[in-house]
Design a protein that fits this description.
The protein has about 200 residues and is mainly α. It has helices at about 5-35, 45-50, 55-60, 70-85, 90-110, 110-120, 125-150, 155-175, 180-190.
Length: about 200
């Protein structure tokens, strides 16, 4: 085994261990928060449930609220990647539509857990506020990526508007009978504009 290979394997194990610890903390937090209520559980309870120290918890999550949104950074990165890495010949909108449809399918596969999590967020003001800030941060990152992709200056109102509509599209279609079809309709509207009396 070469020295480089040994270093790579060590780094790989370290990253896997970090990911496992992070997942264990998030899983413990969701279970405890949904069973007892967010305000009735402390970070020490979560750390003990995951069998780690409180200091370890804060190395992975900056706050108690962040424990619920453990995929925050990954989701933002995926949104930005859908813009920056869209396939040749594919529009930015189509790439974002495909990304959101895949995301919705993942949520559907875990619908019971997702429903319980959303209920917890809806019932907890601190989590609502955190989610709102997170969503706006994702929106800003998406708007910046769109601006760069179309060669517009940062802060371009068209990119900001498109990012806002894309971020709101999931909540718009949430209660629809066929959310995937509704998402297509929203993106068709974004792509082609509104025509009175037409579908």
């Amino acid at each position: 085994m070469t020295e480089t290979t040994g270093v790579t394997e060590t780094l790989g194990r370290r990253e896997r261990k970090k990911a496992q610890t992070r997942k264990a903390l998030a899983t413990a937090a969701v279970r405890l928060f949904t069973e007892r209520g967010f305000d009735n559980v402390g970070v020490r309870d979560v750390a003990e449930e995951a069998d780690v120290a409180v200091t370890t918890l804060f190395k992975h999550f900056p706050s108690k609220e962040a424990l619920i949104f453990d995929e925050d950074e990954g989701r933002e990165a995926a949104l930005v990647a859908a813009v920056r890495d869209h396939a040749p010949g594919q529009s930015i909108l189509d790439s974002l539509r495909d990304h959101l449809k895949r995301t919705r399918m993942t949520f559907h596969a875990h619908s019971v857990e997702f429903t319980a999590l959303m209920k917890l967020v809806e019932e907890t003001p601190a989590l609502q506020e955190y989610m709102h800030r997170m969503w706006r941060r994702h929106e800003t990152a998406l708007a910046t990526a769109i601006s760069e992709a179309i060669g517009a200056p940062v802060g371009d109102v068209r990119a900001a508007a498109l990012a806002r509509f894309v971020m709101e599209s999931n909540s718009l279609v949430q209660g629809c009978e066929d959310p995937q079809r509704a998402l297509d309709e929203v993106f068709d509207l974004l792509a082609h504009g509104w025509r009175d009396g037409s579908r």
